[in-house]
Amino acid sequence: MLRFYCEEDKGNLIKLIEKMEIKEGVGELEEVIANSQKIMLYDQNGIKGFSYYSTYNNDEEDIAQISLFVDFDYRLSGKLISESDSDFVSVYMRVESENPIPFAEKMGFTKWWGSPELIYRGGAFPKTDVEFVKYEEKFFEKFLKVVQDSYYELHEINDMKPYLAPEYSVNEYKLNNKDNVYLVLDNEEIVASVTTGKGEVDNSMVAPSYQGKGYGRKALQFGMNKMLEEGYKEIRICFVEGNKNAEKLYTSIGFKPLHNTQVYRKFL
User: How many domains would you assign to the chain?
Assistant: First the structure.
């Protein structure tokens, strides 16, 4: 049966998250509880799955975003119900071996976009011949333009609105870790950028006019070397499905497939 989460469920929910090895995807449970409108549990003689949703506005649409996790042995047997005044609802599903399409179509969802996650377990790279400098606020306008120029086409193809990234979005998602943003400059113009995280490449991009000249590879290797020097044994990176240039670059460096998150949506 489906029912709402209550405080007494916390211990069992933590056990399910640990069993499914999805803590990285879920994050801190306290934050999920605090930031979700509703948390639904799939209870069949114990918690076998859960979902939660939050709503946000991207300046053009109101979106209800659902995260859904079901124990492997009980997938395709539960239901998901959501009430919302949003334009559409989206659901993120991590895919390993099973095909999510029948489940999504049965629930009335259609494929929106996908995000493969890759992992690197190799050694360091030779030092690049390009100088990297740390991001400073004086570069914001130029950084914003590189983001907008680099991602507009990808956002438009995948209908990820707004296609032209607004300032607040760049600050929140691309510059939320400013101390780890490194730039390649050409007479004060931004050529390339890479952002390192906790064993993750948070962002890597090259200005369109400089693409095809090897800067993407050098930026990526610089950022990876930084994290390897910090002691990380594994480095992860995600990209939007269909970005063939990014996929080719990452695999040529030594990244291997790890997970594939598929995003479906249903207009309300």
Answer: 2
pLDDT tens per residue, range 134-156: 999 999 999 999 999 999 999 99
Please report, as a single letter, which amino acid is at residue 2: L
Task: Tell me how far apart the alpha carbons of residues 150 and 109 are, in angstroms, rounded to a whole number.
Answer: 29
Residue 143 main-chain phi, psi, to 5 deg: -65, -45
Integer CA distances (angstroms), 153 to 228, 240, 244, in order: 32, 12, 13
Q: List 264's β-bridge partners, or say none.
A: 91, 111
Residue 105 host element (H or E): helix 101-106
Domain that holds residue 9: 2-86
Q: Taking the CA atoms of the chain, what radius of gyration do you get in angstroms?
A: 20
Give the C-alpha separation, 142 to 207, whole Å: 10
Model's pTM, two decimal places? 0.73
User: Residue 172 burial by CB count (10 A; 0-12/13-18/19+): exposed, middle or buried?
Assistant: exposed
Instruction: Report the distance separating Cα 91 and Cα 222, nearest Å.
Output: 34
The continuous run of DSSP H or E covering 148 comes out as helix 140-157
CATH number of the domain that 160 lies in?
A: 3.40.630.30
What pairs with residue 115 in β-bridges?
Answer: 261
84 contact partners, CB below 8 Å, separation of at least 6: 53, 55, 64, 268
Same-domain status, 16 and 71? yes
Calculate helix-pair angle for 244-253, 215-229, nearest 10 degrees: 50
